[in-house]
Design goal:
mainly beta, four-stranded antiparallel sheet, 11 strands, about 50% strand
């Protein structure tokens, strides 16, 4: 069973930056970052294909967040810049094991709080 382990959350002031990491213990086809704020649905914020590095971003984070992956380390990153209070949420990494399937692997979540 492949496991995902996240790290890198924390508290930061508006305009600050944080980098999240997610390391997989085995093969994954693609990975993504989701977030869920209190009382709101979980939404996908970024997605990356492991073979060609193609990326997709939610409009709310375009131009501020950068998703990347180091295949040699089986690790995905989310560089979050120009953070806003509305970015406050629990962030989860997730992975697909094959094309055309749903996300089946989830990390434990890491809290990101943006507040002055």
């Amino acid at each position: 069973q492949v496991e995902l382990v996240e790290s890198g959350g924390g508290s930061v002031q508006p305009g600050g930056s944080l980098r999240l990491s997610c390391t997989a213990s085995g093969y994954t086809y693609s990975m993504g970052w989701f977030r869920q704020a209190p009382g709101k649905e979980r939404v996908q914020v970024a997605y990356i294909l492991n073979d060609n590095g193609a990326t997709i971003y939610d409009d709310s984070v375009k131009g501020r967040f950068i998703i990347s992956r180091d295949n040699a380390k089986s690790t995905m990153y989310l560089q979050m810049n120009s953070l806003k209070p509305e970015d406050t949420a629990m962030y989860y990494c997730a992975a697909k094991l094959a094309p055309g399937v749903e996300f089946s692997l989830w990390g434990q979540g890491t809290q990101v709080t943006v507040s002055s």
